[in-house]
Amino acid sequence: LRQQLITVEGDATKAAKSFELIKKFTAQTTFQVGEVTRAFITFKNAGLNPTADFMTNIGNIAAGMGKRFDDVARAVFNATTGEFEMLKNLGIKVKTEGDKLTVYYKDIKKTINNDGREIIKFLNEIGKVNFAGSIERQANTLTGALSNLSDSFAIMANEVGEGGLTSALT
């Protein structure tokens, strides 16, 4: 995954900075380091800038719907290319009407331009407003505690590897 980050970011320094963001984000969620890293790469491949706020908003949707973070990231990626089928799994319906999209979530109906950036903006908004706090609620469960324990082991193993074990074994 780190090598994939280097490829997506273009150099090791940017990849290391992105991995730090991923680790910090993962520590506050029930999502695993691997799935968040894959999601981060998916967002970058979609031409998005996965900031901590953006990942939190999309993560709130995932947590609120009981979905994996990287699955929601794929739905976001697909939406940027005009493929909205995966959004239905999140309770979000999109209808194309000429050069406009009508997006439905529960009692929300919004008409936006038929543009990938507009659908991302909509998803970001509902993650921030309609799904607010979903990550925290999920993290405060036994499953959340076990997930964070698993992440701690994964991060520790990564640090031991980076500390020289990987080079020695290679």
Mean pLDDT: 88
Sheet with most strands? 3 strands, antiparallel
Q: What is the element string, with H for helices and E for strands? A: HHHHHEEEHHH
Give the strand tally. 3
Strand percentage: 5-15%
Count, helices: 8
Query: Alpha-carbon distance between the termini?
Result: 17 Å
What characteristic shape results from the CA principal axes? globular
Rg (C-alpha, Å): 17 Å
Q: What structural class is derived from the secondary structure elements? A: mainly alpha
Can you give the helix content as a percent range?
Answer: 55-70%
Low-confidence stretches: none
Strands of the widest sheet, in order across it, are 1-2-3
Write the SSE topology.
Blueprint: H1 2-9, H2 12-27, H3 33-45, H4 52-65, H5 69-80, E1 92-97, E2 100-105, E3 108-113, H6 116-129, H7 134-139, H8 142-169
Antiparallel strand pairs: 1-2, 2-3
Helix pairs in contact: 1-2, 1-3, 2-3, 3-5, 4-5, 4-6
